[in-house]
Structure formats: C-alpha cells, structure tokens
Amino acid sequence: MTSNALNFESLKTSGISPEDAREIFAMSEAEFFEKILPLAKTLREHAFANEISFCSIVNAKSGACVESCSFCAQSNTYKGAQAPVYPLMSAEKILEKAKEAESFGATEFSIVTSGRGMSKAKEIDTMVDAITKIRQETQVETCASLGLMSREDLQRLKEAGMINYHHNIETSRSYFPNIVTSHTWEEEVATVTNAKELGFQVCCGGIFGMGESVEQRVEFVFQLKDIDPDSIPINFLNPRPGTPLADKHDLTPLDCLKIIAVLRLAMPRKELFVCGGREVNMKGYQELMFDAGASGTMLGNYLTTEGRSPEQDLALIRKNGLVPVSPHRKTKGASHGTQEAAKETC
Ligand code: SF4
Fold first, then answer.
1. I want to staple 55 with a disulfide (CB 3.0 to 4.6 A). Which of 108, 120, 157, 206 is the partner?
2. DSSP string, 216-256
3. Ligand 1 center to residue 130 CA distance, Å?
4. What is the Å distance from ligand 1's center to 78 Cα?
5. Closest by alpha carbon to 304, among 223, 243, 221?
6. Can you point out the beta strands (E) in 124-267?
7. Domain that holds residue 231
C-alpha cells in the first residue's frame, strides 16, 4: 500500500506496513498535514472518541544507578549528570504523592525507581505497603516501573493489587547496544513478557531522538507492535547535561508528530501516551499531539525534568473538546486502555 491508498477502512483493524511508515517519514510537511494527520485523528477518535487519559508518576528512588543508559542522568557512570540521589521513599510518602496526583486529575499513578531492578526484599515490602495504602485511600490505578524484575517479585506486586507494570525497551533491537551496554534488549523484553504472562496490563515504549536512523524508528515501531503491550509511552529525548547524549538534538517538531502518527497508524487501537521531552521537542506542535493520534499524556513532572503545569494540559484538552478519563477505559475491541505512565527511563 502506498500513502495515496491509505484510508480509514483499510487501516482501522490492522494498520500500516513498515513500507507505509517509511513513506510517511519521508513526506513533506504539507503532504503529511494533508494526508496523514486527518487519518491519525480519525483513527484515534474511532478507538477512544473524545477521551484522553492522564497518568502521573513519582520518582520514588532516584540516582545512584549502576547501569549505563546513555540518556539517563540517574546513572552513576556519568559523573557530570545532575539527577538528585535519594533512597526509596517510605510507603507513606508515596501515598502522599498519589493523593497529590489524584487532586490534579491523574487517574493512573506510577511509582518509578532508579536502578537495574528492585532486588532487596525490604524494598519490595515497601512497594507492597505503598500499593496497598494507595488502593485503600485513593481511586487512582496503580502502576510501577521498577526496572528488570523477577517473576516472583512481580507476583508479590500483583497480589498486593497492582494492575499495571511499566517497562520501556528504550529503542529498537539493532540500536540498543549504542545506548545501553550494561544489559541487553532481550533482558528488557523478558521483563515485559513476564509481566504480561502474570496478567498485568503492560505499558511499554521508549525514547525517540537518541541518534537512531529513520529505518531504526520503523524497526522500533514494529517491534513494539510485536510485543503487543496494552499501552505505549512515547518519549522524545530531552538531553541531560553530563550524559553521552547531552548534545543530541535530532528531532524537529514535525519528526515528533510523524512518530506519533506512525505509531497510531501502525497500531490503531493502542493507547499512546506522549510523555517526556514533548515540551522541548514539539514546541508549538505540542498542541497537535492528539490530532496526530496520541490518546493520553502525563500530568506534571517527569523523572528528572519538569513538565508543563497540569492546568496547561487540562486547558489544552478542553480547548480541543476532549475529556479526561481513566487509562483503563475499555475501547471497542481493545484490551485496555494506558505512559509512561510512561517514563523517560527504565
Ligand atoms: S534508565 Fe534506569 S536502569 Fe538505566 S541508568 Fe537510568 S535509572 Fe539506571
């Protein structure tokens, strides 16, 4: 199929091919706005009507990570990076953050920690306690992003009532060794697979703009499609001082719109959350992210960078005639609905 033949009826169930994605990435701005943006918006509306979901995160443990992810200010490897360093928050503190997120309008709350994974039993105990308290005292859905995890530890979180597990695979398999050398892409995918097999709703995406080629963007989109997560957090690199990617500024606002639209056209019924890096990379085009196919976004700050105010995002939603909903809405034929709580890391 060529871009001239792309239409709603042909796309609404199975989506575009890698060849179509290549064509879209090569389009001029005028052609993209004429042919693709309206299609992406129609597909998003078909799956989600006028509903947009919001999630929010807390960085419950920051910095001092032994891994070497090139984009991450929390890695110990990059001495010039400036992320704060603190141990895992108490369950009470995490609960307080969940209540704050709920008061801003978030319907999903994700607990994110730095590090390869959560190996200490005491940390898992704190997480179980936090999830139990959040379920008792708020209405927000709980999610966690705790790095590479064993089935046994994931099972404990499941038994505590956690519904979602977030784990990004960062980038395409072929580009991954350029970004991370301390663990493998296959280890990332294994964590996602474990979470899926245990019955979690799985949120899995990554970061664009880290130096990958257009072909590797296409590869990444279709690898995500194969993994088949319930929701996909999309991050655009916001280069962190002191990291190897500190000077990487690869994305234009149009590139970002194309990435969102290609993901929407490739996976017409998936939740797509636009998360970290949207402010700095999309600039004025941020207002078009829902037209390009995003069905959700993050409220408030990201892990190591600040986001727009919740009021600004809620105003954008209202201006476009959209309404905020739970990420776990049921869509016609879709297993779920959830970004990041997509995160920009782990
Ligand atoms: S992304 Fe996660 S695992 Fe990688 S360096 Fe940052 S905190 Fe560590």
1. 108
2. HHHHHHHHHHHH--SEEEEEE--PPTTSTTTT-----HHHH
3. 22
4. 11
5. 243
6. 141-145, 164-166, 201-203, 206-208, 231-236
7. 38-325
Q: Quick check: is 334 in a domain?
A: no
Supply the CATH number for residue 296's domain: 3.20.20.70
Q: Token digits for 36?
A: 């693709």
Q: How many domains does the chain contain in total? A: 1
Residue 339 lies in a domain: no
Query: Tokens in use for 339?
Result: 């970004």
CB of 345 closer than 6 angstroms to any ligand 1 atom: yes
Give the C-alpha separation, 74 to 190, whole Å: 23
Give the helix/strand (H/E) hosting 47: helix 37-48
Centroid of ligand 1 to alpha carbon of 229 (angstroms): 21
Tokens of 29: 């701005």
By residue count, the chain amounts to 346
Nearest CA residue ID for atom 2, ligand 1: 346
Residue 346's nearest CA partner among 121, 169, 172, 183 is: 169
| pTM to 2 decimal places | 0.89
Q: Is residue 250 situated within a structural domain?
A: yes
Nearest alpha carbon to residue 164 among 128, 193, 200, 195 = 200
Report CA-CA distances (Å) from 48 to 9, 142, 215, 338. Answer: 17, 21, 29, 12
Task: List the chain pLDDT tens, one digit each, 346 residues.
Answer: 555 577 777 787 789 999 999 999 999 999 999 999 999 999 999 999 999 888 788 889 988 888 889 999 888 888 776 788 899 999 999 999 999 888 877 778 889 998 888 767 889 999 999 999 999 999 888 888 888 888 888 898 899 888 889 999 999 999 999 999 999 999 999 999 999 999 999 999 999 999 999 999 999 999 999 999 999 999 999 999 999 999 999 999 999 999 999 999 999 999 999 998 998 999 989 889 999 999 998 876 554 555 567 777 778 788 888 887 765 544 433 332 223 333 445 4
Asked if residue 75 has its Cβ within 6 Å of ligand 1, the reply is: yes
